[in-house]
Specification:
The chain has 2 domains: 2-91, Chorismate mutase (Chorismate Mutase Domain, subunit A, Up-down Bundle), CATH 1.20.59; 106-362, Alpha-Beta Barrel (TIM Barrel). 47% of the residues lie in helices and 11% in strands. The protein is built from 12 helices and 10 strands. It binds phosphoenolpyruvate and manganese (II) ion. Phosphoenolpyruvate binds next to loops. Keywords: Isomerase, Transferase. Pfam families: CM_2 (PF01817), DAHP_synth_1 (PF00793). This is 3-deoxy-7-phosphoheptulonate synthase/chorismate mutase.
């Protein structure tokens, strides 16, 4: 009995190797076909041919496997074969760390985000409301030694009756005030048609959560030579987020910063749920810098210290935070923006955390 089992197993091993050899042979032929198709610019996937092959195989099926099982097995082989024919970038994204093991460092003038650089903080009001409002914020940023001033000029609001932003006038205000204080402007663009002209005012183009899958906007952002801060969509998976970044990078602009800003879940005690695990996952899977928007991900002011530290501990290359001279009268996100005094305190707390960590890693 044991002797029979042993010899049957040997027989199985032999067949396994035969199958492997046959699959490998099939793979080599498929690759050759792929080369020919490439020269002839013919589409690699040919559903009519695939259907014909499957029909022929099923016709010859004499069991013991059911037709469905045989179909399933061969479809797997076809799928793997098609992958062999595909270009490298179809298999492994340009934004993937497998394609580029080194961190991408995003450069904005003399400033750098990502790589071994210290984490940066991007701060400013949710919306640009007036020159005076932006100047009050810019002054504090400057005092704090910060570089990146944010502010929304084109506001993608959930309700069409809410403040829609000052548009180009808002961008003009940002540029003017930022120049006074030698700051860099980060601002959202929502329409591909506005991209080229916005380059005049903006140092980093923000693509907001609601537009993460606005593919025309992504393509347009890939065609300009200015850094892009891409926010994760309201309900986007990490994979979808990386595909969105791929749209930009594959068009020629590799200066992309990923921003985790919370995703929609059933939890109601925060505005969104900060997916903190996305930070190390994105850093691992991709070479792009990753920052965390602590304002939109929480929608509340009372936990910002802890969330900022959590983001830095998770490996974020920076933070985004909304601050307003008088949040109570803000035209958007009045409940989550912090006033300038609280902002200074938050910065102190972040500095303390960073110093502590530097000492720890030095020691
Ligand atoms: C913003 O940062 O101004 C904004 C609208 O955020 P989000 O796109 O993440 O909602
Ligand atoms: Mn906001």
């Amino acid at each position: 009995m044991n002797h029979t089992l042993e010899s049957l197993r040997k027989e199985l091993d032999r067949i396994n190797f035969q199958l492997l050899n046959l699959i490998a042979q099939r793979g080599s032929i498929v690759k050759e076909i792929g080369e020919i198709k490439k020269k002839q610019s013919v589409n690699k996937f040919d559903p009519i041919r695939e259907r014909k092959m499957l029909d022929q195989i099923i016709e010859h099926n004499k069991g013991p496997f059911s037709d469905d099982t045989v179909r399933h097995l061969f479809k797997q082989i076809f799928k793997a074969s098609l992958e062999l024919q595909q270009e490298e970038h179809h298999k492994t994204l340009l934004v993937s760390r497998k394609r580029r093991p080194l961190d991408t460092v995003v450069r904005i003038g003399d400033e750098e985000i990502g790589g071994n650089n210290d984490p940066i903080v991007i701060a400013g009001p949710c919306s640009v409301e007036s020159e005076e409002q932006v100047r009050k914020v810019a002054q504090v940023l400057k005092q704090q030694g910060l570089i990146f001033l944010r502010g929304g000029a084109y506001k993608p609001r959930t309700s069409p009756y809410d403040f829609q932003g000052l548009g180009e006038q808002g961008l003009e205000i940002l540029r003017k005030v930022a120049d006074e204080f030698h700051l860099k402007v980060v601002s959202e663009i929502v329409n591909p048609a506005n991209l080229n002209s916005s380059v005049e005012y903006v140092d980093v183009i923000q693509i907001g959560a609601r537009n993460m899958q606005n593919f025309e906007l992504l393509k347009a952002a890939g065609s300009v030579q200015i850094p892009v801060l891409l926010k994760r969509g309201l309900s986007a998976t990490i994979e979808e987020f990386l595909f969105a970044a791929e749209y930009i990078v594959s068009r020629g602009n590799n200066q992309v910063i990923l921003c985790e800003r919370g995703i929609r879940t059933y939890e109601k005690w925060t505005r969104n749920t900060l997916d903190i695990s996305a930070v190390p996952i994105l850093k691992k899977e991709s070479h792009l810098p990753v920052i965390v928007d602590i304002s939109h991900s929480t929608g509340r002011r009372d936990i910002l210290d802890a969330i900022a530290k959590a983001a830095l501990a998770a490996g974020a290359d920076g933070l985004m935070v909304e601050t307003h001279p008088d949040p109570a009268v803000a035209l958007s996100d009045a409940n989550q923006q912090i006033n300038l005094t609280t902002f200074r305190e938050l910065m102190k707390e972040i500095d303390r955390y960073n110093r502590l960590n530097t000492v720890k890693s030095d020691g």
